[in-house]
Design goal:
165 residues; alpha+beta; five-stranded antiparallel β-sheet
Length: 165
């Protein structure tokens, strides 16, 4: 079981190889942390953006290895997906097809649409980190009153998944 602190600087890290069910499992993990941090209203946006970043790993990273970082910030959450593949992604309205008929290639446009900020950081050793941030629209006091005490909430432990996905 992973232990975290519910303080604004709490983090969750995981290195893994993306598989068939990875996006679903990671959405559940991230949602459990959002619940712990009283940021449930970000669940849909964060879940969609995480799914798109993992789809990019499947499509563009030969060994499908990556690292996920979930970082609780004072006003929301930051998600980072790091991989070792060369090349930097970019948002493309046409999906890379001049006719605009491609079935894929628009994932980062979705990330851009649901996140408050996103970007790509090239790594000196090769590869990159693609990140996004989503901010809560609720004041901290309202969030605390709505959710109540979260001291008994345990983060995702692996076998028992929280509902909602």
């Amino acid at each position: 079981m992973h232990q975290i602190d519910a303080a604004p600087s709490a983090t969750y890290r995981m290195n893994f190889t993306v598989g068939e069910h990875s996006a679903r499992h990671l959405r559940r993990i991230v949602r459990s942390y959002l619940h712990l941090w009283r940021l449930e209203e970000l669940g849909d946006a964060v879940g969609l953006a995480v799914t798109e970043l993992l789809a990019n790993v499947v499509r563009h990273v030969p060994d499908r290895r990556c690292a996920l970082l979930v970082l609780r910030q004072a006003s929301g959450v930051r998600i980072e997906v790091t991989d070792g593949a060369p090349g930097l992604p970019r948002a493309s309205a046409s999906g890379g097809d001049p006719d605009g008929l491609a079935e894929g290639g628009r994932g980062l446009l979705l990330v851009e649409a649901v996140a408050d900020r996103w970007g790509v950081v090239p790594l000196a050793r090769g590869g990159k980190t693609v990140w996004f941030e989503c901010e809560s629209k609720e004041p901290d006091g309202d969030r605390a009153r709505r959710v109540g005490d979260s001291s008994s909430i345990a983060p995702y432990a692996g076998n028992s998944c929280p509902s909602g996905d």
